Amino acid sequence: MKFAADPVEKQAHYLLRDAGKAMRDYGMVADGDRVAVAVSGGKDSLALLELLDRHRRISPVRYDA
Q1: Model pTM?
Q2: Which residue, 1, 15, 18, 42, has fewest beta-carbon neighbours within 10 Å?
Q3: pLDDT value of residue 2
Q4: Phi and psi at residue 34, in whole multiples of 5°?
Q5: How far apart are CA 2 and CA 37, in angstroms?
Q6: Distance in angstroms (rounded) separating the CA atoms of residues 30 and 18
Q7: CA 52 to CA 39: how far, in whole Å?
């Protein structure tokens, strides 16, 4: 897969891949689930929120956030 010149997108790709694998391996989200995310406003929680939104858009498992 070729990446855009943007290093942020490249990093997001790898983080999303690893997060998706963990979600599948541990059965964290199932079809029809609703996911609530507590966001403190810090970098880590905002990054998690962004990754969950990206994952939701491309995942074959349909869930709401």
Answers
A1: 0.73
A2: 1
A3: 59
A4: -115, 130
A5: 31
A6: 17
A7: 12
DSSP class of residue 61 equals S
Q: For residue 14, give Cα distances in angstroms to 7, 11, 27, 29, 34.
A: 11, 5, 20, 19, 24
Residue type, 47: A
Which of the four pLDDT bands, split at 50, 70 and 90, describes residue 3? Answer: low
d(CA 39, CA 53): 13
In this structure, what token pair is assigned to residue 52?
């969950």
Q: How many CB atoms lie within 10 A of CB 28?
A: 13
CA distances from 17 to 20, 41, 52 (A): 5, 24, 11
Beta bridge partner(s), residue 64: 34
